[in-house]
Amino acid sequence: MSHSDLQLFDYQEAILGKLREGFMGGHRSQMLVAPTGAGKTEMAMELLEAAAIKGNRAAMVLDRIVLCNQTSERLDKYGIGHGVLQSGHWRFRPQELIQVCSAQTLEKRGSFPNLKLLIVDEAHNTRRQTVEFINNNPQVKIVGLSATPFTKGLGSIYSHVVSAISTGELVERGRLAPLRVFIAKEIDMTGAKKVAGEWSSKETESRGMQITGDVVSEWVKKTHEVFGGPRKTVVFASGVAHAADLAKQFGEAGYNFVSLSYKDDDEFKAEAIRDFSKPDTSIHGLIATDILTKGFDVPDVMIGVSARPFSKSFASHVQQMGRVMRSNPGKEFALWLCHSGNYLRFAEEWEDVYTNGVNAIDEGKDKPRRELTKNEKEAAKCPRCSAFWPGRSDVCACCGFMRAKRSEIVVNPGELQELTPGGNVKDQAIKQQWYSQLLGIAKERGYSDGWVSHKYREKFTVWPRNVEPVPMPASLEVARWVKSRQIAWAKSRKAA
Predict the structure, then answer these.
(1) Which one of 269, 291, 399, 491 has the lowest number of neighbouring Cβ atoms within 10 Å?
(2) What is the pTM of this model?
(3) Which domain holds residue 284?
C-alpha cells in the first residue's frame, strides 16, 4: 500500500509523535484530545494508513452509520483504500486492511480477527460493549478521539492523554472562528426536576416553549444589527415540540427554518442538511436538539442559538459551540445567542479549556453547577448591547460601552461591586441598569435629566456617579418602583 495525498499540519505531526511515544512507553490505550477544527479525522486516517502500510489490520469505530459514510468519503478523498464493515453496504470489502464500522456493528460481531489498531471516535461516549471489546482484546492498540473527554470513568479505559492543541490556539491560527456572545433572555429553570444530575427533557422543553417568541425576536434583531440581515443559523432547542414551535414562529416572521428530530426519516434529515450546506440555500436555519451536535459540518454557519439548558453537561455545551466555530473564507467571527444560561453557567470551565486545552481526564467537568445570582448574570453582560463581558475588560468589545473605573470597584467572588465613600457596598451593574432604565423612562415621557438624577438618589441615597448615559427600556421592577414613588408623592401632596 502506497502513501496517500494526506498532508498534516505541524501540530498534527507532533501529536501523532506523542501517541507513538506513548505506545512505546507501554500505554496500550490512549486518548487523543483535540477540539473541533483540529483535524481529528485526518490524524485518525494517518494512523490507519500507517498501520496498513505495515500490513496490519486497523479499524475506526464511529457512533452512527451516517458518520461511517462521511468518514469513508474522507478516506476516498485522500485515496486511502478501505472497506465499510456493514452487511449490504455498497463498500463492504472485508479483505481490506482498513475498516470503518459503527459501534453497533462492532458490538454485534463481538470480535475482530487479527486487528492491531482500533480508533474509537467520540470516545467520551463510553458504550458498555465497546469498553468490553477494549478490555477483552489486550493485543489491540486503542486510540480514543474526543474534544470533550469529561465523562466519569474514562481514566480506567485510557491510561494516557495526549492533547493536540487548544481552542484558543486554533483561533489564533485561523483554523477556528472566534465567538461573539450575547446573553439573551434566559429559560428559567428554577426548581426544575433533575434526572441523574441533569434537567429532565420534559422540564427543559416545557420551559423552553415559554420564550419561543423571545428567541425569534432576538435572532431577528441581532442578525440585522450585526450582519445587516439573516445568515445561516443553527438552533439547539429544548425538545422536539420546542423545535417545531420555533420553526413555526420563525416561519411566521418570514424566515425559513427547518426542524429535525428522531421522528424524521434519515433521508429527509440528510436532504435538509445537504440543502442547507449549499452556498445559495433558501434555508435560513436548522433546528434540533441532538442531531446537529455530532457529525454536522457546515463551515459557513454564522449564528448559533443556544436554547437547551444543561445543568451539568459541559461537554454538550462545548460540542454545540463547536458547530458554529468552523472556519470559512470571509468568516471573521460567529454569533452565539445564549438563551439557555449555559455560557455563563460553564464560563469558568470554558475559559480553562479554551486557553489550556485538556491534559487530564476524569476531571469531573461534567457535574452540576452553582447557578449564578441575578446580579451576577447582569454584571456578566454589557448593559447596552447584552454582549458577554469578561470581568478583566473595562470596555465592551461589541459596542464600546465603558465599565466603571476599576479603582472604584472591588471584586468579591462572583460579584461586581462598588465601594462608595460612605462604606456602603452597592452592585455597580445594578446601579447602571437602574440609571439606564430611568433614562429610558425620562426619554419616553419627556422628563429632564434632573428628574433622573433625583430618582437615582432617591433609590440609592447617592447622586449618579460612574454610570454611563445609555437609555434602556424599563423593566417591570423599575417601572413599578417609579409608579410607587409617584403615588407616594401624590399622597404626600394631598395630606399637605
Answers:
(1) 491
(2) 0.73
(3) 174-371
